[in-house]
Amino acid sequence: MEPATSEKSTGADRTSERGEQTKRLIVDTAVRLFRDQGYDKTTMRGIAQAAGLSVGNAYYYFPSKDHLVQEFYATVQVDAAAACTDRLARPGPFDERLRVAFGAMVETMAPYHAFAGKFIKTAVEPGSPLSPFSAESAPARERAIGILSAVVEGSTTKIDPELRADLPELLWLCQMGITLYWVHDTSPGQEKTALLVDRAVPLIDRLVSLARMPGLRSLNREALKLYRMLR
Amino acid sequence: MEPATSEKSTGADRTSERGEQTKRLIVDTAVRLFRDQGYDKTTMRGIAQAAGLSVGNAYYYFPSKDHLVQEFYATVQVDAAAACTDRLARPGPFDERLRVAFGAMVETMAPYHAFAGKFIKTAVEPGSPLSPFSAESAPARERAIGILSAVVEGSTTKIDPELRADLPELLWLCQMGITLYWVHDTSPGQEKTALLVDRAVPLIDRLVSLARMPGLRSLNREALKLYRMLR
DNA sequence: GGGCACAGTTGAACGCGTTCAGATCAACGT
DNA sequence: ACGTTGATCTGAACGCGTTCAACTGTGCCC
Fold it and tell me: What does the pLDDT look like over B122-167, one tens digit per residue?
């Protein structure tokens, strides 16, 4: 007999059905609780109970509570990417496109501001899997940089060719900086961060334009060389 | 009878002798253990035992383990300040002085690199007392900015007067950035951070000089205005 | 001396993230 | 049917930071 719900283990299918299901159940429950009651108040026991499992079971799929947050972060990243790919489809001026990308990120993250404070705590820890520079968050990082690559690619503004290659990564660093500010931004609705994006975008735009000017070429080149060495 | 060790409670002296003694004992023990065996392996029970006290007693003086680290951080800051005030006594070129300040900081922190990873974890948390922007760390912050003020004050390089007022704080932000890089720097002896300081100082020097140029004045002014709004 | 107020001190207890030795389940060969 | 194997799941237990009701010491007033 072959019940419709169970799947035969066809050689090609590596992921067992049950495991994947449990894993998703844990993530979904965790994300929901994180969202509803914050990071600290969401305990591993709470997640397990709400999902109808044991604590240890969650640890079979995720090495730590932080890794659950990682999953959460990835979700947000996907949303942010989705929110702006449409609006970056047609080429346009650099500053406009950059504003779309930064704006989408800030807007997507907005509901999680309270939560992000706890999140960043582990994100900046050097060895942490949640570090934006870690191997584990490579997918999320590359997606984010991919968006900024799209910003640069479809830009009608003239960009110094030497700068162009590294610009997406540099913009991503700017984005990290904005995020860092945003996390600490206690103004109502994080309006100061909105202000920061609003004003920083033209500044970056001007800096990018200026990098082509003869007087600043060497400075630009030197800064880029340093950046490459330190990466 | 009046034992020589005990002090009469003269009205002016608010701090009781015994309390201050215990407090210092706790800090000293904690700092020693942090240094010897790292942050994670140093437990509150361990500190209490090594100091010959109970766990609860430490909590009578310090609200959390993090606050003990705060004390540790303050110590390092004082050392860093002491390490460069001499060398900043006589005026000199801006870049030279900046190098002294940044160099002193990196060198002073060097022994605590492994420890700093755990430290920064709580330092970036928005509400944390260890946050470099928090009220609790105001003394340490002001000392650090004070050094950078001295760098600017005694500088023989011409500096845009509008920039001059905010420059110490901006340099302090640079310093925070360098620290952030340093914490994540896994190169042997943190040589990459040394490289960063070595190369970033001339870049900053050039940027400061360029801020006076006619073509960049408006950009400079706009950036400063933004900075003041966001502070 | 005796009560009083209060700084200082204690250690058991709490809830947390995490671990681990073992129980349970599903699929397969015989 | 019946092990066997490996993935999946369990919950008690560990060590941690932190809390708290109770205890001790000390100086002071009557």
Answer: 889 887 878 888 888 888 899 999 999 999 999 999 999 999 999 9
Tell me how far apart the alpha carbons of residues A106 and A110 are, in angstroms, rounded to a whole number.
Answer: 6
DSSP character at residue A188: G
* Option in B120, B126, B184 nearest A184 (CB): B126
Under DSSP, the state recorded for A139 is H
According to DSSP, residue A158 is labeled: -
Give the pLDDT confidence of B174-183 residue by residue, as tens digits: 999 999 999 9
- Output the pTM of the full model: 0.87
A215 CB neighbours strand D below 7 A? no
Question: Which of the residues A184, A195, A217, A224 would you substitute to probe the B interface, choosing the one with the greatest number of B C-beta atoms within 10 Å?
Answer: A184
Q: Which residues touch strand C (CB under 7 A)?
A: A 6, 8-9, 18, 41-46, 55-56, 59, 63-66; B 16, 18-19, 22, 53-57, 59-60
Cβ-based contacts of B131 with chain A (< 8 Å) = 184
d(CA B65, CA B119) in angstroms, rounded, equals: 11
CA proximity to A196, closest of A104, A103, A81:
A103
* Nucleotides of strand D lying closer than 7 angstroms to a protein CB: 7-13, 15-21, 27-28
B6 touches strand D (CB under 7 A): yes
DSSP assignment of chain B equals ---TTS----TT--S-HHHHHHHHHHHHHHHHHHHHH-TTT--HHHHHHHHTS-HHHHHHH-SSHHHHHHHHHHHHHHHHHHHHHGGGSS-B-HHHHHHHHHHHHHHHHGGGHHHHHHHHHHHSSTT-TTSTTSSTTHHHHHHHHHHHHHHHHTB-S---HHHHHHHHHHHHHHHHHHHHHHHH--SGGGHHHHHHHHHHHHHHHHHHHHTTSHHHHHHHHHHHHHHHHH-
Has residue B17 got a pLDDT over 90? Answer: no
